[in-house]
Amino acid sequence: MNRFNRAFVAALLSLLALIVPAGARAEDKPSVIRFANPGVGVGNRPVVGGSAWNLAHIRGLFEQEFQKDGIAIRWSFLRGAGPAVNELFANDLVDVASLGDLPSVVGKAGGLKTRVLLATGRGNLYIAVPSDSNIKTVQDLRGKKVGIFKGTATQLGADRILASFGLSEHDLRAINVDTNTGKAAILTKDLDAIFGGSDLIALRDQGVARIIYSTRGADPKLQSNGSLVVSEDFLHKYPSIVKRIVRTLVLSAKWLAETDRTQVFQLWSKSGVPFSNYKEDFGSDDIKLRSSPVLDPYIVSSYKRAVEDSKRYGLLRNNFSVEEWFDPSILNQVLKEEHLENFWPVRPAP
């Protein structure tokens, strides 16, 4: 090829690079994937348990998946929980997160450009009071100083529980506290009660608190749900990377479903939450169902109800379409490729 032809070809390639749509070019890869977790472990340690998402972190599955590509994995564990994760999304400081229903709904309604790709599990709520408290029932919380981590799935769950007993936050002296601060306030009796997760069981086992209520075995409409939330920008820019993230989580959920729960609880206990807490919280529940990633009618209806309840309790102003927010296409591809289409049963709407 002579000098003229080489110059012509180079000019033509440069021109094509300008006119070919970005989506038609070879996909770039990020130098880092930024993961965020809403919450911390005991003593603010950067480890949390309770789901396949947490197992993927503890077992280093994302690091293993992307090591060969030279893609770094950066984790942020946020004491400010869901609201703090939304702050990161708003400032383009996170790509992927597992979020509870209320913060993800509030973020979406507030204009955050996110998509929900799969479910990350559901959890129970507990109410703890000091061991020598005269509070025995939910109705006894009227007028009491009650810790509620506002803006989180715990707040939505707390409002649902209160409503089921004819109460609302306005009937309490509701105080916004994060999980660790709230537990400390129960010890010092600066709070009369606190809403929280299964880690409150440890306070009971230490003899400093009593559990007066939990959603274990209760109406599933009172329970909280979590999901994998990804920024739309990251999804559009790196679809194959996102698919690998989804695949990693699906396989983590499968490992969770097929592994002896003793081993699972031991791994989760690295969070500082005792093994016995997880054992009691899960009880005889089907751990496979509780950790299902499938965006089935149960999850869709749960999030529709989260939007409706959040508006009813004054936690949300704007409405939006849950169906348009959810994107099961990548998950369905992964389930088909891994021959897991029927591994998790489809749960009906409650």
Spatial separation of the terminal alpha carbons: 70 Å
The largest beta-sheet arranges its strands as 2-1-3-10-4
Query: Which class of the largest domain in CATH terms?
Result: Alpha Beta
Report on the biggest sheet: 5 strands, mixed
Tell me which CATH architecture of the largest domain applies here: 3-Layer(aba) Sandwich
Spans of at least 5 consecutive residues with low confidence: 7-26
| Percent of residues in beta strands | 15-25%
Structural domain tally: 2
User: What name does the CATH topology of the largest domain carry?
Assistant: D-Maltodextrin-Binding Protein, domain 2
Which sequence of SSEs, written as H and E, runs from N to C? HEHHEHEHEEEHEHEHEEHHHHHHHH
What number is the mean pLDDT?
A: 92
Rounded to an integer in angstroms, the radius of gyration calculated over CA atoms is 23 Å
Structural class: alpha/beta
CATH superfamily of the largest domain: Periplasmic binding protein-like II
Shape: globular
Q: What percentage of residues falls in helices of 4 or more residues?
A: 40-55%
Number of helices: 16
Number of strands: 10
